[in-house]
Amino acid sequence: MADTLTITDNRTGTSYELPIQDGTIRAMDLRKIKTGADDFGLMTYDPAFMNTANCRSAITYIDGDNGILLYRGYPIEQLAEQSDYLETAYLLLFGELPTAAQRQAWVRDITVHTMLHENVKTFIQGFQYDAHPMGIFLSTVGALSTFNRDAKQIFEKRSRLLQMNRLIAKVPTIAAYAYRHNIGRPYNQPDNDLSFTGNFLNMLFKMTELKYQPNPVLSRALDVLFILHADHEQNCSTAVMRSIGSSQVDPYSAMAGAAAALYGPLHGGANEAVVRMLAEIGSVSKVPEFIKKVKSGEGHSRLMGFGHRVYKSYDPRAKVIKKIADLVFSVTGKNPLLEIALELERIALEDDYFVSRKLYPNVDFYSGIIYQAMGFPTEMFPVMFAIPRTTGWLAQWEEMLVDQEQKIARPRQIYTGQQTRDYVPQEARG
Ligand code: SDX
After folding, report:
1. 369 and 339: one domain?
2. Mean pLDDT by 10 residues, the chain (430 residues)
3. Pocket test for ligand 1, best of 276, 303, 308 (most atoms within 8 A of CB)
4. Which helix or strand (DSSP H or E) is residue 332 part of?
5. Is 159 contained in some domain?
6. Same-domain pairing of 249 and 297
């Protein structure tokens, strides 16, 4: 049997043979299907790209039915167990795990870029004290494009690598500055003696001590959480990174847009929404009442942290995060919201409303509970997601840039507006 699709257009009786490649047909092949010479030809109509592949990618593979997530072929569970965030970032960007020498050079290349231009402090100080840290984060990422004018050389590999090193290194500093701004404390400078996550904790929580000593358990927990959040193929914010990047703008400007997409409560803002939802439920005894409200659609309540466009089984990242919770709580003490979350999960996984819609906990269901136990304010949770996703956005951005099939993204539409009509003078308007 041939790898082709035979389509008969019943409007004309004409049949067409379309090649099937990688489980897809090319949308442009549909344009051959016309009713006459002046017909534009067929398009696909796919709101929210539910069933549209817009690129070829070798970075991350997801099998949503079987709950499989691979970064460059390595299972997420093994990376979470045996790797750390910077090594995983190297893997995502360059395609292979680093040798010892490559790892040493990579860690140095990141560490030397953790500082921010002093003017960035002034920029951040312009925000209200209670500005949402994600608003500060995405604005500052965009502002960095004005500090790194060489970033426009996007087709120079060395320039691309320099910008990627800068962004991966600086996003924890931006996040920490936003947090310190919110709490009215002086900014802490990076400490290059510390690990990536240890330094992040240092910039967040160092007070008057001369040398901050990050808790090794919490540093490790952050490493695992960052590994789990580093990439996730063509999710909403990554699709934005690729789309903005396709106009050939610099990566800082593209990433500001990607961070804005991640901010939404249906995407990376869900971890913040989960903790607010658990606090609103208030106790284990109130869980059945809340589930009833969600199922009835009352107030458009959703079970935040549940459901996924791709995973129609348990998100493998949520399984790992649940284990990390025990590790963190051994240091911080258990977060009382955990009991409510566990009861919510128990009931939902038995309830046909959720089972029939294949709604399972996703990466955001437990992450917020952990961040809260670690002392992060709820509004910092989407920022905690954006820090590691910086690597995924940049890996996907570069893959798009060097893909010969790609060009500026510009979807089509089905026009539903008025047909041509003449201008109506003011006095003649009804
Ligand atoms: C992330 O794409 C990625 O990879 C994202 C991400 C990443 O790493 O980049 O994994 C990170 O964004 C995880 C998702 C975080 N968002 C949430 O937890 C918010 C709550 N979840 C939903 O809003 C929803 O599940 C989405 C947005 C995640 C997925 O939405 P879909 O695939 O468009 O599904 P849908 O909205 O069409 O829902 C299908 C049905 C509907 O019911 P019916 O209209 O058929 O009766 O399921 C229902 C929805 O009402 N539904 C839910 C629900 N999610 C879907 N009902 C209650 N609670 C929910 N959470």
Report:
1. yes
2. 95 97 97 96 97 98 96 98 98 98 98 97 96 98 95 97 98 98 96 97 97 97 98 98 98 98 95 94 95 87 92 93 92 94 93 94 93 95 97 98 97 98 97
3. 308
4. helix 316-332
5. yes
6. no
